Amino acid sequence: MNGQLLRGIDYAIKVIPRLMKNYLLVIPNWILLKKSLKSHGVLKLKPFNIGLWHHGFFYFTGELNKKAVFLKIDKKLHFLQNEYVAHEFLREKVKLIPLVKFIINKSSQIAIFDFIAGESITERDIANNAWVSEEIYRILMVLNTNGVFHRDIKLENFIKRGETLYLIDFTFSVGSDSCPVSFKELKTGVEVERKILKHLGEENKPSELVWNDFHSMSLLVDRALLSSSKGKGAKQWNIFKTHLSDRNMTYSLTKTSK
Ligand SMILES: Nc1ncnc2c1ncn2[C@@H]1O[C@H](COP(=O)(O)OP(=O)(O)O)[C@@H](O)[C@H]1O
Ligand SMILES: [Mg+2]
After folding, report:
1. Ligand 2 geometric centre to CA of 168 (Å)
2. pTM to 2 decimal places
3. Pocket of ligand 1 (CB under 6 A)
4. Domain layout of the chain by residue ranges
């Protein structure tokens, strides 16, 4: 059997059960949510990419004040408050997707963002456009300088619209000791949280339970350029790369028992 077929089967085994479970969840959640969000002015609620739903996180689109919005809903772990913390702290320092409303109640946390009709970046975007890695570098520099570890630097967490790049998904971000705001942190001692920690940052982190956003960026860009090293992105990247070792802010959970 060839590799592509095996990868396809592996994907189906992982994704189909989740998709079926999420479809069963969608109906009751949708009806209840529709009602409660209407009172917050959100109309035309529709499930968004059900295959992405995980760990009690649901995604919807809707309309608020006649503007398209994206809703991220956290019904289980209640870590979405980190999106609010990150946005309040960083929004004047770096261009983020506007967080229009944050709703918190006993059973759920709901973040309502402007809907961005863009695409996640691809390796080709990085390889062919110098400005993409330049922007990633600039965004991470702002986070780094302000003591924020994003911890999930990967292609899917950058959305590109035209020539604007947005970093998203601060749900499991953390702050350094010098960071003036406090994030809710996943704990290694709680089984479900440990599982998330294991996957957070995927293969882009230095080692298990250790995160370094510039290290992740380095792996990401190197991988993208490997396939087309003559692309316009390569030259600029080689300049940035020499500065990355100065930015070695690492967050580790291996020495602590949080
Ligand atoms: N404001 C937005 N507008 C449009 N799509 C979005 C927006 N925010 C996130 N998305 C899409 O939803 C996906 C999941 O959002 P994300 O916050 O990264 O959650 P997850 O924890 O599942 O990775 C993103 O990869 C992106 O495709
Ligand atoms: Mg994400």
Report:
1. 7
2. 0.90
3. 52, 57, 59, 70, 72, 97, 113-116, 120, 156-157, 168-169, 171
4. 3-114, 119-252
Q: Burial of 138 by CB count in 10 Å (0-12 exposed, 13-18 middle, 19+ buried)?
A: middle
245 vs 186 pLDDT, higher one: 186
CA-wise closest residue to 216 among 169, 162, 164: 169
To test ligand 1's pocket by mutation, which of 79, 121, 169, 172 has the most ligand atoms within 8 angstroms of CB? 169
- The residues, ordered by sequence, that sit 6+ positions from 89 with a Cβ below 8 Å of its Cβ are 146, 148, 180, 181
Give the domain 3-114 fold.
Answer: Phosphorylase Kinase; domain 1 (3.30.200)
Beta bridge partners of 164: 161
> Which ligand 1 atom minimizes the distance to the CA of 72?
17
| pLDDT the model gives residue 9 | 82
Q: How far apart are CA 201 and CA 198, in angstroms?
A: 8
Choice between 6 and 216, residue whose per-residue pLDDT is larger: 216
- Tell me how far CA of residue 215 lies from CA of 16, 163, 194, 240, in angstroms: 33, 24, 22, 12
Instruction: Please give the average per-residue pLDDT across 189-207, as a whole number.
Output: 95
Greatest alpha-carbon pair distance for the chain in Å reads: 54
Cα of 162 from ligand 1 centre, angstroms:
17
Expressed in angstroms and rounded, the spacing between residue 116 Cα and the centre of ligand 1 is: 9
Domain 119-252 in CATH 1.10.510: yes
